[in-house]
Amino acid sequence: MLFLLFRGNVNFYFLVCLEFNERIVDTYKVGNNIHAIELMVDISTHGLAGTRANVRKPSEPPIAVAHSRDVTGDVHPKNIGAANNLEGSVLVISTLIDLKILGDLDARKDEFERITAQYVLDDGPDGRIVFDKPDSIQPSNDYTIVILFKQIQLSK
Amino acid sequence: MKFFIGSFLLLLSTFQVKSQDITLKDLAVPNSPSFILLDAAPSNIEAPVNPREFTLGLLKNMDLDNKFLSDFSMEFAPYWWLKPEQRDAYSFMGLAKKKSVVLQNGAVDRYEQNIFSGLKFSSVSMAFLTKDMIADTSIMKQKIVSLGARTTLIKVRPAAFANQLNANLIAWHDEAQKQLESLNQEILSEIGNQSAIDSLLKVLSNYLASEIAVSYQKRRDEIKEMIDQKPIFNWDLASAITQYGVGDTAWKTGRLGVWTTFASYIPIRKHRKEDYLDILLRTRYFKDNYAAGASGKTIVSGTFDIGAKIGIELSNFNLAAEGVYRKVEGQKDWQKRLTGILNYKINDNMYFSGTYGTDFGPQNKLIALFGLNWGFGENKIAAEESK
Fold first, then answer.
1. Nearest to B176 among A19, A50, A101 (CB)
2. pTM, two decimal places
3. Residues near B291 by Cβ (< 8 Å), separated by ≥ 6?
4. ipTM value of the model?
């Protein structure tokens, strides 16, 4: 985001905010062999959580590659496919968290501040890489629902 | 006059004032151990969620002239300050992993209730105020520091609780996976356009939070309803101690209390999960080193209470009978208090309460208290532990 200050005709100042619609996307080298790439997701919250990961190659339909097994929202180490199949794909991981069970608005806001997420990819040429932040954390207006989103480019 | 009062009550009973922020529970006298010993409700109670807020609270309320915290109190559960490794919904709800079962569509974990799960939410309370707590002829106020703690030692749910809750959690998780699959498909069609992706996340989060998402909310509310149910057996323990600043430098122990409650809430009807038969047993030891004695002198007083309460709790009505026996140190006979308690919810914002019976003391004084509580927000009547 960039802020620019302009002076107008009669002592008026204009603040112009330019938001660049680009965000640096994390990348993971998968290589180009038949070795399987492993994904792990660790969600830390007392709310109900569920996680799902999908990949998409350009001009191919998206496919689901991993999901949580219970309401911890964690994805235990999961083979998401062979490196040569994943090369050039985009991996997206979304987590739905429900904080209603925590109680009132103050309790939900406090818990929202405590949410953390770690995404781990392993078995590529660079080995184990930990991505320790989601790209977006979007709460609903009343903080009952929170959605985490992470995007990782899988390169050669 | 009668018409005026009747009209006023009718107006109050039909007047619906809704507020998301204030409830009767918020306005109630706090029952934290450190406050109970003081016979006072501090005007400013803070609940710091981290050490930084705790420190700021202390600094903000420091009276520099008296070098003491002025009319300040706080209660917090240290667990919320920590970030333990296993922070998940199961540990919050008191479920522990039992084993993994391999089914056709993969392995599924089985859970059982952890009856000691309430221990981690133990809370600490503290209060600071200036008040005359010594029952002598002097009216000089003392600096008072009160520290207390309370915990739930054991909480037992019905036998089928863990399996039923786990089934509801699996159903919620399946529903969440459907929502996430649709979300990921849409996100992948917007890759490269971050603002479009952020909009998708915002729309979905607000949609699922709204009542329009009927199927999703049904799954989640079933879980919330289950964890809000009262336990079939509960054992609470609390204690507190107060220190009096006598003179400029001397600090002496003023009061000390330890109390414990065993409670059982037995559901009366299967289809109405807020109707219970309540059975509570309570004991308390209380010591006051500066109690009122003869001819303006203070004495050391110790009392031991043992009592029981039995009542019926329905959604808008509860009726209970309570008996407490008290042994005062140095006295031969036990004293007793026998009361009947009635609460009736007129509407979400107002309820009527009444207590009738005999109080402690050799003459068994009569107790007759009737009142009308009016507040904002939605509240339900609950048979609270007596103080």
1. A50
2. 0.79
3. B135, B298, B299, B300, B301
4. 0.85
